[in-house]
Amino acid sequence: MKKILKLALVLGLVAGLAAAGLSLTNSLTAPVINAREVAKDREGLETVMPGAEYSKMEVQGDTEGSIDAIYDCGNGTYVYKMKVNGYGGVGSITFMIALDPEGKVVGYTVTQHGETKGYGSQVAEQKFIDSVIGLTNPEELDTISGATISSTAVKNGLIYGMKHYRLQAGLDYE
After folding, report:
1. Cα 70 to chain centroid, rounded
2. What is the pLDDT of residues 65-90, one digit of tens each?
3. Which of the listed ranges 27-41, 63-77, 93-107, 142-156 does the model predict with the highest average pLDDT?
């Protein structure tokens, strides 16, 4: 019986030391991991919210699975990196939107797409970008004739991302 207690005590001590070591390792590596995640998305981040201090956040409450990442810009603005299924298939359009504290789109860029050139690729062109910037209600966004699947996918991603932001921020969703 004494031997079992001794072994249990040693096992508890080893487990405690392992937990402390993992905690220390996590605290030392978390900033490095965050910096690498930001570096991976820096070009898109700088396009939608130039000059900000980006900090990657944990995505919570994503029921649709289309939010790839959320970045806090430190000034009340958040950047959502979204992956949606366009004409090119699963996850074929990746875009970023910057949302100000009121939930208005202040930045939009497509970082990757597999859409048909001249049709679905229009979601990455300036005319479409201009129609997204300033939106407070993404339901009002018109789809692109001839690129309905691609532009509807982006529109749905905008609706979902903006709704998620408003719910997380405690804002009413229009």
Report:
1. 3
2. 899 999 999 889 999 999 999 887 76
3. 93-107
Task: Please state whether the predicted TM-score (pTM) of the whole model is above 0.85.
Answer: no
What's the rounded Cα separation, in Å, for the pair 112 and 96?
10
Beta bridge partners of 40: none
How do 67-72 and 105-113 pair as beta strands?
unpaired
Name the amino acid, one letter, at 164: H
pLDDT digits 0-9 by tens, 116-144: 888 888 999 999 999 999 999 988 898 88
Taking the chain, what is the end-to-end CA distance rounded to the nearest angstrom? Answer: 67
Residue keyed to tokens 């970008």: 129
Q: How far apart are CA 94 and CA 37, in angstroms?
A: 16
Q: With helix as H, strand as E and coil as C, how does the chain read?
A: CHHHHHHHHHHHHHHHHHHHHHHHHHHHHHHHHHHHHHHHHHHHHHHHCCCCCCEEECCCCCCCCCEEEEEECCCCCEEEEEEEEECCEEEEEEEEEEECCCCCEEEEEEEEECCCCCCHHHHHCHHHHHHHCCCCCHHHCCCCCCCHHHHHHHHHHHHHHHHHHHHHHCCCCC
